[in-house]
Design a protein that fits this description.
With about 120 residues, the protein is an all-alpha fold. Helices cover about 60% and strands about 0% of the residues.
Amino acid sequence: MTEKSRVVRLVSSTLSELLPARRPPRSDHPHLLIKIARPTATVLLKRPFRDAAYIRRHVSYVVKESTEQGEQHIIRNLLSIRRKLVEMGLDREVIDREMQSIEGEVRAELWRQILLPEVP
């Protein structure tokens, strides 16, 4: 359970204890009506999620496959990374920015390895 989900669960249980859904609020005591705002925060990455060494290893595997299999591998890998970032609780803008960065680095490395293959 992530920290964010623990906080949301705590707020939800507090709300249900303070404001039971089946009991109408008492109009003669308006000071008893309490509203607790759900916490919001922005979670940021301190460093890139995938480093250059990972990108090189990933692409070296991809170039050994057929074009279709390599592309499918890239797509599956990017979707897996996106799922992991979502599970980490990152904001959508942060995830989108990180995914664009990773995909751009993968595509650039792919072309580098295709056009300039290492000669043994």
